[in-house]
Amino acid sequence: MNNETSCKIIHWSRQTIGTIRPILCICLLATVNHLIFQIQLKVFPTVHKRSMLWVYAYIITDLLLLLRFFLLYIYRWWPRCIPHVVRTFICYGEAVFDNYLNQLQCYILLALNICRYLQIVHGHNVYVSNHLIIMIAYCLIYFLPFISHIVMIAFGWTLLQNPPGGFCNLLPISLIIRIAFLVFSYFIPVCLTLVFLLLSLHHIQRTDGIRAQEILDARQKYYRRLVLQSAIFYTIWLVLWSPNLLLFPFYCKNGRIGNLAKILSYINITLDPIAISALDRRFLQTWQLTGDQCRRWLRRRQSSPVPVILSTHTIEHSLTVN
Predict the structure, then answer these.
(1) Helix 14-43 crosses helix 256-275 at what angle (to 10 degrees)?
(2) CATH says 7-294 is which class?
(3) Residue 172, CA distances (Å) to 162, 165, 176, 177, 194 in order
(4) Keywords assigned by UniProt (predicted)?
(5) What does the pLDDT read at residue 68?
(6) Which residues contact 143 (CB under 8 A, 6 or more apart)?
(7) φ and ψ of 159, to 5 deg
(8) Bridge partners of 7?
(9) Three-state SS annotation for the chain
(10) How far apart are CA 110 and CA 116, in angstroms?
(11) Which segment of 50-59, 190-199, 227-236 scores lowest on mean pLDDT?
């Protein structure tokens, strides 16, 4: 039978099933965590501001990665015969969107830190004064990484791997392309993110022209809090998220190292709603308000009187005694 027209039932291999189960549990926990976070955004609309543009974009990529996982999970457990053309298209989508969305987060965090730096240095809301430039950058960040993947496929610079019962991979064909991809997708945005973060912290630490001790103390307090918040978020991000993108050009994702990198990246997605609170005080306040409301609800439940139901026999016995 012609492979181009034949259909085939897609399923996980036994080895992949052992890997996919812990990832499924992590993704279910991540979904609950993100659902709670989204409910908080609806209940506390004070965090809906233009300055949260990049934070929301980052969270959306997390949700898209979770949606991608669940759709592919259903696709491989669904006992339907899939034509070859459809299988190839889905396989390309599986490989491209994993790399694309992870690369997207890298540039979103870079844009977030550039805007934060400009706000700190110039002292005005860049999301209002430079709205058009930010929207152009927003579109380019989503558009250019996707186009780069399409160009690499069109020119044959990547090779699609579709092992039976495993994950689809899109690997660069030469060492030069692998290094170039790694430089533009990881090292440039990550290094620039850290540079702008350090520049922001350096500007906050400066005391030029500040004579009042109270203002200086308040600025130093803000500086220490910002250092702690940023350190928490970027430590989690670099440790859990980096391996997945660093290993992409060199290792197959179906191997042991690739599976570990995937697990770490999904753990990062699970922790993101909490770690995002380190970037903005308003998000932390929403978590605190939600916790306070839950504690108040539990106290009301514990302090509410329990009704005592007397049986008919007990009532009759009491009346006889009286």
Answers:
(1) 10
(2) mainly alpha
(3) 14, 22, 9, 6, 27
(4) Membrane, Transmembrane, Transmembrane helix
(5) 92
(6) none
(7) -125, 125
(8) 83
(9) CCCCCCEEECCCCHHHHHHHHHHHHHHHHHHHHHHHHHHHHHHCHHHCCHHHHHHHHHHHHHHHHHHHHHHHHHHHHCCCEEEHHHHHHHHHHHHHHHHHHHHHHHHHHHHHHHHHHHHHHHCCCHHHHCHHHHHHHHHHHHHHHHHHHHHHHHCCCEEEECCCCCCCEEEECCHHHHHHHHHHHHHHHHHHHHHHHHHHHHHHHCCCCCCCHHHHHHHHHHHHHHHHHHHHHHHHHHHHHHHHHHHCCCCCCCCHHHHHHHHHHHHHHHHHHHHHHHCCHHHHHHHHHHHHHHHHHHHHHHHCCCCCCCCHHHHHHHHHHC
(10) 10
(11) 227-236
Cα separation, 89 vs 87, whole angstroms: 5
| Whether the predicted pLDDT of 310 surpasses 50 | no
Q: Using CA atoms, how far apart are residues 82 and 273, in angstroms rounded to an integer? A: 36
Domains in the chain: boundaries: 7-294
Contact by Cβ (8 Å): 81, 9:
yes
Distance CA 64, CA 69 (A): 9
pTM to 2 decimal places:
0.81
C-alpha dist (Å) from residue 137 to 16, 110, 181: 39, 11, 21
Residue 172 φ/ψ, nearest 5 degrees:
-60, 145
Q: pLDDT: is 254 or 161 the higher one?
A: 161
Query: What is the token pair recorded at 139?
Result: 């579109």
For the four alpha carbons of 74, 152, 189 and 244, in that order, the dihedral sign comes to positive
Tokens of 169: 């991979």
